[in-house]
Amino acid sequence: MTEPTHPTNFIRHIIDADLAAGKHDRRVVTRFPPEPNGYLHIGHAKSICLNFGIARDYQGRCHLRFDDTNPAKEDVEYINSIQEDVRWLGFDWGTHLYHAADYFGRLYDWAEQLIAAGKAYVCELSAEEIRTTRGTLTQPGKESPYRHRPSAESLDLFRRMRAGEFPDGSRVLRAKIDMASPNLNMRDPVMYRIRRESHHRTGDAWCIYPMYDWAHGLSDALEGITHSICTLEFADHRPLYDWYLAAAATEHRPQQIEFARLNLTYTVMSKRMLLELVKDRHVGGWDDPRMPTISGLRRRGVTPEAIREFCDRIGVAKMDSTIEMGVLEAAIREDLNVRVPRVMCVHRPLRVIVENFPEGRVEELEAPFFPDDPPKMGARKIPFARELFVEQDDFLEEPPKKFTRLAPGREVRLRWGFILKCHAVVKDSGTGAVTELRCTYDAESGTGAPRDGRKIGSAIHWVAAAHSVPVQVQLYDRLFTVPDPAGGGADFKTHLNPQSLEVLTGARAEAAVGAASPGTRFQFERRGFYFADPIDSRPGAPVFNRIVALRDSWAKVAGGG
Ligand code: ATP
Ligand code: MG
Which residue minimizes the CA distance to atom 22 of ligand 1? Predict the structure, then answer.
């Protein structure tokens, strides 16, 4: 039964009951069925973790099936990225990689079988006429004038549709179900349309393509899927799913189960919208670190473990809801906190001259990589010298009372180092900007508490100027300024956050950071978690993506503390 390490949910309860009742020969076979018309996003990750997780925990299997029934929007680039992303998330379909397109022949044969049995007919109404005769939720639809044509005639026409005798859009094959059904999906849905479009897998072998509903359940049946798990919007399609299986008299009958899709605040999760962001160059690509795509999260530096943990935490329910972006960020932070060493990087440097420290002298201080668990990676030596950099915003010339960092006449602790006191401020004569602080250090202060009981407010991060290395830092913020960019009337793009990317070219970091190879992660103390971008970094010139800040700054904005 279910391993206790993974939270249970109503789908696992259904499977438990099915196994107890001996259903499906006590097998569990699931599938993840993406349409290759875009890159996978964090919502897909929920479905992947659910389907592959169930297969793993029940010693079953999970298929990866490309639902490639719409050649117009599909692309091999997407096929490849989807496989890469599923693998990266830590899942394996083994030999069970399938394509709906590989079933086109069998789907066609089944369609002929339905026509022969009087359960489907060729309809010559236009798409527009089919739409207008479909009726509404309160009004029944109107039967097509072609509905009662003889089976033999439909069969002949369907074969000629396939043979390419008719122009695109001139005819469709429809299931003969019930034009008065309260469920609009049951009002003689279209099964096939004519579309002269090359398919990435079948080339020009077909000029008719099956509709999603017709292809999906039968593909599940062909593969012996036991539990066909999909999102809630397909609940209204379940009667059709079952009707098609019954009409085709499939040997195996999979069971469709719906769960709530993942919605996240401050982003969009529709492939159409994500594609628009890419095409219109609002982002650098599908893998832009601001995108909610798996490839974007990977490029940003998020680990697969953090994504899996997030998916476990949000659970699986039957009611739609929206998850706060902060929940994802918290999972990312907790994952990185224990796996990533801490170092110092000054983002916006302000020069400090330590007047009572001799020029040319260097004092090595010791700093552990994991302050909460020093043995984990040990410590490194950090050089202290006469010329330092501190963060511009750790100094205020006229500080409010509560400000505990550097200010004229005030003291601060240098992280892992001495106490520093500011005596004078040097300014640019033209702009008046602060360019340098003249300070002294307390040689006796060591790195512990001051012996004389002085109260020192804060410890700030710093680097020795001559020993530090330049790095580029890219600060990412949320892609949109409102929690629900896709909701409401306006174009979702009007809510794009113009400050979602800030590039800092003048940052200075400890030497170890400059030597980091692409793909390395650090916590920059007091700033957040960072990832050496695997594509933009050059040897000796890393570019760091901020994965996530140390605290949820948005919670504060919203008044949450
Ligand atoms: P579109 O955005 O074009 O409607 P889609 O997001 O449904 O497409 P598919 O490729 O059809 O993309 O999705 C593959 C699988 O992932 C489906 O089983 C779908 O239910 C699931 N899925 C898609 N989006 C989410 C989501 N936000 N949360 C959970 N599961 C999702
Ligand atoms: Mg879909």
Answer: 44
- Give the distance (Å) from ligand 2 centre to CA of residue 231: 9
Distance between alpha carbon 415 and the CA centroid of its chain, in Å?
35
What atom of ligand 1 comes closest to residue 231's alpha carbon?
Answer: 20
Nearest atom (ligand 1) to Cα of 34: 10
**How would you write 308-361 as a 3-class SS string?**
HHHHHHHCCCCCCEEECHHHHHHHHHHHHHCCCCEECEECCEEEEEECCCCCCC
Q: Is the CB of 228 under 6 A from ligand 1?
A: no
Q: Check if 36 has its Cβ closer than 6 Å to any atom of ligand 1.
A: no
Q: Is 271 a catalytic residue?
A: yes
299 lines ligand 1 (CB under 6 A): no
Phi, psi of 129 (to 5 degrees): -65, -35
| ∠ CA 216-218-221, rounded to 5° | 115
Instruction: Retrieve residue 378's tokens.
Output: 């040990």
Q: For position 349, what pLDDT does the model report? A: 98
| DSSP characters over 18-63 | HHHTTGGGG--EEEE---SSS--BHHHHHHHHHHHHHHHHTT-EEE
CA distance linking residue 172 with residue 159, whole number of Å:
12
DSSP-derived pairing of the beta strands 411-414 and 419-427? antiparallel
| C-beta of 262 in contact with ligand 1 (< 6 A) | yes
- Is the CB of 181 within 6 Å of ligand 1? no
Closest Cα to atom 14 of ligand 1: 34
Closest to 460 measured CA to CA, from 371, 409, 526, 529: 526
Q: Tokens 């979702």 — which residue?
A: 492
Using CA atoms, how far residue 257 sits from 28, 37, 241, in Å, is 13, 24, 11
Give me the pLDDT at residue 551, please.
85
Query: With the C-alpha atoms ordered 6, 8, 9, 13, is the resulting torsion angle positive or negative?
Result: positive
Q: From 39, 211, 216, 261, give the residue whose CB has the most ligand 1 atoms within 8 Å, as the site to mutate.
A: 261
261 is catalytic: yes
Pair 457, 484: CB distance under 8 Å: no
* Ligand number, closest to the Cα atom of 32: 1
| Separation of CA 261 and ligand 2 centre (Å) | 11
First to last CA, the chain: 42
**CA max distance for the chain:** 102
Q: Tell me, in angstroms, the distance from the centre of ligand 2 to residue 102's CA.
A: 19
Low-confidence ranges of the chain (pLDDT < 50): 1-4, 556-561
Phi, psi (deg, nearest 5) at residue 123: -115, 135
Q: What is the pTM of this model?
A: 0.94
**Ligand 1 and 46: CB distance under 6 A:** yes
Go through the domains of the chain in sequence order and give each one's CATH number: 10-263 (3.40.50.620), 342-556 (2.40.240.10)
Identify the pLDDT of residue 105. Answer: 98
